[in-house]
């Protein structure tokens, strides 16, 4: 059969490329040449002179021998990396619990060496070595690690996706399941009012009302910020704030400058805390607008002075904290996304990052990942730099104990976020790679297929890594592991917590939430089994863990201890409660899983209704979540 012109062209190109790399003798005879040097195989056998025409190397005509040599070098380097990984893993394991001379085991403490152990072991470890076979699991490759650290734009762990399960009595279509994103982008814009708080309103509403703030008032508001928001995110250096930013802003009479902008944003956040601490003089006309005067003055100023630098990143992340406290999800994402994009520009331009810049990177990483775990906003891609950016570990001489404590908490938070992203990638991100999706996101078939085909070994390995994270925590932040008897405490209103209790509670909430996410395939299997099916003890325990973990996550998140606006990631805390009640409703309808309900599961609905009284006024997503739960309650009556 005669070849087509296109085929002749392809064949001709291949022949020319082969001839280009062949030796002179083989080219004249038009025979295949193995390109060996100094003499090819044919010339060596026949005793011929073997010479080559020097050619410019390119990707299309690299000699086979050179390619083979390059691959061999790569294999050798991988062998070295594998050996180093095994060695570091062994060292980190022994350093976590090293026996002293008397045979006693020394626990990890809050020292800088302890922080190093945390950073170099669990928090940096991707997977463990299979000691039995002496091999590394398939997770150990660079591209997979980068994907693990970057949260996918679309995922199936947001709680409303539980309504797509066949056992759900309330059915929502794929477009309807996108209601959180739709509602948030369509909500009314934030008021642009720059009116002063109540204590300054008697002087009029001119924009210079900030200049009338006394030193006592400024100190009070900024202290509220540093006592409540700073411990959870480490956005600012406290000493630098007072010695530089506040000092410069006051010296220049709060002119249009980046220093004034940072001070105003800190005051806006401090005002929210002050109001909930009983200082009602900082209220606005509308309770939902607390701090808005400071905030809008800062944003107007920032539009004129924004630059591509780390100080602007600080401003954007402070803005995102304010929007998050107001449960304005879309505005939060916009501020975080701008900060992340600025960081993506800055990092490649610098030979190294100082400790504060590293912290800003990880604050942005945490805020974006937490937001994308609930809402299908586009990712900035900041996670691609996570594997090469140093962890925010600082061992400064003379560091105050509370500052060291906050840094260890922040390090633990970063590690947990990495682990959560890994959980989402291995358990819930596979539908993006294995199943077809429609224009609205994940197909129901793909989502259910993913849950049904989850490997038990993957679940066990992720659970092992979660437990390792917990055991490597500093002593002051450590807590007992999950036990089914822990869910016996009712969801009632509790007294306020100290800063230490609050930080420890946040870590506990993340731990239990991760526990629930890891074992979710078990409750899916139990809810969809045939009537009369005997469930194994593994599945029964998995179902208890899913609901119990979700219950304990809400219990320790702070929802029952503090106002919603003062929580770390308030909208995520609300949606954790939403997810808990959804799972309780589904489990209560099934004989195969009703045994797994917590002892005080009947307190979940009253707790949700109490918190919803505030949440639905601030968030259309919370309002819709609440409507769905009320509808399910009616169906179950």
TrEMBL record:
<keyword id="KW-0539">Nucleus</keyword>
<dbReference type="InterPro" id="IPR053181">
    <property type="entry name" value="EcdB-like_regulator"/>
</dbReference>
<protein>
    <recommendedName>
        <fullName>Zn(2)-C6 fungal-type domain-containing protein</fullName>
    </recommendedName>
</protein>
<dbReference type="GO" id="GO:0000981">
    <property type="term" value="F:DNA-binding transcription factor activity, RNA polymerase II-specific"/>
</dbReference>
<dbReference type="Pfam" id="PF04082">
    <property type="entry name" value="Fungal_trans"/>
</dbReference>
<feature type="domain" description="Zn(2)-C6 fungal-type">
    <location>
        <begin position="22"/>
        <end position="52"/>
    </location>
</feature>
<keyword id="KW-0479">Metal-binding</keyword>
<dbReference type="InterPro" id="IPR036864">
    <property type="entry name" value="Zn2-C6_fun-type_DNA-bd_sf"/>
</dbReference>
<dbReference type="GO" id="GO:0006351">
    <property type="term" value="P:DNA-templated transcription"/>
</dbReference>
<dbReference type="InterPro" id="IPR007219">
    <property type="entry name" value="XnlR_reg_dom"/>
</dbReference>
<dbReference type="InterPro" id="IPR001138">
    <property type="entry name" value="Zn2Cys6_DnaBD"/>
</dbReference>
<dbReference type="GO" id="GO:0003677">
    <property type="term" value="F:DNA binding"/>
</dbReference>
<dbReference type="GO" id="GO:0008270">
    <property type="term" value="F:zinc ion binding"/>
</dbReference>
<dbReference type="Pfam" id="PF00172">
    <property type="entry name" value="Zn_clus"/>
</dbReference>
């Amino acid at each position: 059969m005669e070849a087509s012109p296109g085929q002749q062209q392809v064949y001709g190109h291949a022949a020319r490329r082969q001839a280009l790399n062949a030796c002179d003798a083989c080219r004249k005879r038009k025979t295949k040449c193995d390109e060996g040097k100094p003499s090819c195989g044919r010339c060596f056998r026949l005793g011929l002179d073997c010479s080559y025409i020097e050619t410019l190397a390119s990707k299309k005509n690299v000699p086979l021998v050179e390619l083979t040599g390059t691959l061999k070098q790569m294999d050798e380097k991988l062998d070295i990396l594998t050996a180093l990984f095994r060695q570091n893993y062994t060292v980190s394991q022994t350093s976590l619990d090293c026996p002293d001379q008397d045979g006693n085991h020394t626990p990890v403490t809050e020292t800088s060496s302890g922080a190093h152990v945390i950073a170099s072991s669990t928090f940096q470890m991707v997977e463990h070595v299979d000691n039995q076979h002496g091999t590394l699991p398939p997770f150990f490759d660079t591209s997979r690690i980068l994907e693990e650290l970057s949260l996918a734009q679309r995922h199936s762990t947001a709680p409303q996706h539980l309504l797509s399960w066949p056992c759900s009595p309330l059915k929502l279509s794929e477009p309807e399941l996108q209601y959180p994103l739709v509602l948030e982008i369509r909500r009314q814009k934030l008021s642009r009012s720059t009116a002063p708080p109540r204590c300054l309103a008697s002087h009029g509403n001119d924009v210079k009302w900030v200049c009338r703030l006394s030193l006592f008032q400024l100190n009070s508001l900024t202290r509220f910020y540093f006592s409540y928001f700073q411990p959870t995110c480490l956005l600012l250096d406290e000493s630098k704030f007072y010695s530089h930013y506040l000092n410069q802003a006051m010296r220049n009479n709060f002119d249009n400058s980046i220093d004034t902008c940072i001070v105003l944003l800190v005051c806006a956040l401090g005002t929210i805390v002050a109001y909930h601490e009983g200082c009602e003089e900082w209220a606005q006309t509308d309770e939902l607008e607390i701090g808005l005067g400071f905030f809008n003055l800062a944003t107007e100023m920032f539009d004129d002075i924004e630059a591509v630098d780390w100080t602007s990143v600080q401003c954007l992340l402070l803005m995102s904290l304010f929007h998050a406290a107001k449960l304005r999800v879309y505005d939060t994402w916009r501020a975080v996304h701008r900060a992340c994009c600025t960081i993506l520009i800055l990092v490649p331009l610098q030979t190294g990052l100082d400790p504060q810049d590293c912290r800003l990177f990880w604050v942005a990483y945490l805020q974006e990942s937490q937001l994308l775990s609930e809402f299908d906003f586009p990712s900035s891609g900041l996670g691609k730099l996570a594997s090469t950016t140093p962890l925010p570990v600082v061992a400064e001489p003379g560091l105050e104990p509370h500052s060291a404590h906050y840094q260890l908490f922040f390090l633990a938070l970063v590690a947990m976020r990495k682990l959560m992203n890994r959980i989402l990638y291995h358990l819930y991100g596979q539908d993006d790679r294995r199943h077809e999706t429609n224009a609205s996101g994940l197909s129901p078939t793909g989502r259910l297929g993913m849950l049904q085909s989850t490997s038990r070994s993957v679940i066990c390995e992720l659970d092992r890594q979660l437990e390792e994270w917990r055991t490597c925590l500093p002593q002051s932040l450590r807590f007992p592991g999950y036990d089914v008897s822990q869910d016996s405490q009712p969801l009632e209103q509790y007294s306020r917590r100290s800063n230490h209790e609050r930080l420890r509670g946040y870590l506990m909430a993340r731990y239990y939430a991760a526990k629930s996410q890891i074992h979710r395939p078990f409750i899916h299997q139990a809810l969809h089994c045939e009537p009369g099916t005997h469930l194994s003890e593994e599945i029964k325990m998995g179902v208890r863990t899913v609901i119990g973990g979700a219950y304990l996550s809400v219990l320790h998140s702070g929802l029952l201890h503090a106002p919603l606006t003062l929580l770390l990631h308030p909208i995520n805390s609300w949606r954790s409660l939403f997810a808990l009640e959804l799972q309780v409703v589904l489990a209560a309808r099934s004989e195969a899983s009703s045994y797994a309900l917590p002892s005080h599961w009947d307190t979940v609905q009253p707790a949700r209704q109490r918190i919803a009284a505030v949440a639905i006024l601030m968030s259309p997503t919370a309002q819709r979540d609440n409507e769905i739960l009320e509808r399910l309650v009616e169906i179950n009556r």
